[in-house]
Amino acid sequence: MGKPYVFVTREIPSKGLEMIREYYEVEVWTEYTPPPYEVLLEKARQADALVTLLTDKVDCNLLQQAEKLRIVSQYAVGFDNIDVECATRLGIYVTNTPGVLTEAVADFTWGLILAITRRIVEADKFVRTGEWHRTGTGWHPLMMLGTEVHGKTLGILGMGRIGRAVARRAKGFGMRIIYYDVYRLPREMEEELGAQYVDLETLFRESDILSIHTPLTPQTRHLVNEERLRLMKKSAVLINTARGAVVDTEALVRALREGWIAGAALDVFEQEPLPPDHPLTKLDNVVLAPHLASGTWETRTAMAELVARNLIAFYKGEVPPTLVNKEVVEKRRPGFG
Ligand code: GLV
Ligand code: GLV
């Protein structure tokens, strides 16, 4: 038997690809943009395995036509682009990359928190464009003031690994930490983090900084809507490094324009890439990033290795380390041959 064939929808760090090549015949889509749906469908029809990104739509139509497909190894922690229920029904394994990107995402979240509260991006423009020089003063007591994070309340929406890593850092900044999640943490963990469980309404009302760390599901889609944004303090800022569609973007734009909240720092959007004429790009009280939170060499390499480890475990007939749809194991034994 030849090696099973895996289609990889984008170039990933080479270490992972080398690991996969030992067991699989690898084809990589080398263009910078995602393969069009029709191409992905055609490749999936021939593939034993797929390595996908959050920009690849792996819907039930595609899964049904992929008759040889046994495993989809997603290069991301989020997998809202994949119809997991359908995959499970068809006996197709779905894996993701949790854990390895937690610290990088938490660091970036903190970068955004400080960027928006201390106006770091604005400040850079101020110097670069000569605006500072034009003021004629080196230092002024009222120049470009921000707000402090120390002593403020950080609200965390979604207290999974990433939410907890953000909370751990907040402790160092001397903040009060409140959180909401459908699952409450065990008491000892709450105590260790210094985090207090509150209901959703309290979270929105009391947070000075509200940071989103939920996956995108039908339950979390537009969870941050007009009604909830209106509960927030006028001085509060919203941070999103999770998924754009957890926020109703139209409502957020109004909130930022009309001053229901003070600002937002966003790494993710309902539409990616964000078009340059999008209303968000016209607002001064916003910091924008191109879905970059896990973007370090260390983390992106670790993600590639985990993608490979999942594929290799499957090949060897073992249960992949970070299998999403655990129920699939009863339907179909892993492995090839
Ligand atoms: C990136 O957004 C991921 O889900 O890993
Ligand atoms: C992701 O790793 C999460 O559980 O937050």
How would you sum up this structure, described in words?
Helix content is 36%, strand content 14%. It contains 14 helices and 12 strands. It has helices spanning 14-21, 37-46, 60-65, 84-89, 102-117, 120-128, 131-135, 161-172, 187-193, 200-206, 226-229, 249-258, 297-315, 328-331, and strands at residues 5-8, 25-28, 49-52, 71-74, 93-95, 153-157, 176-180, 195-197, 209-212, 237-240, 263-266, 286-288. The protein has a 7-stranded parallel sheet with strand order 8-7-6-9-10-11-12, with helices on both faces. Strands 2-1-3-4-5 form a 5-stranded parallel sheet, sandwiched between helices. Bound molecules: glyoxylic acid (2 copies). The site of one glyoxylic acid has 8 residues, from helix 8.
Bound molecules: glyoxylic acid
Helix share bin: 25-40%
Please tally the β strands and state the result.
12
Question: How is the main sheet built?
Answer: 7 strands, parallel
Gyration radius, in Å: 22 Å
The shape, in one word, is globular
- Please state how the strands of the largest beta sheet are arranged side by side: 8-7-6-9-10-11-12
Total helical elements: 14
Q: Extract low-pLDDT stretches.
A: none
Strand content: 5-15%
List the secondary-structure elements in sequence, H or E.
EHEHEHEHEHHHEHEHEHEHEHEEHH
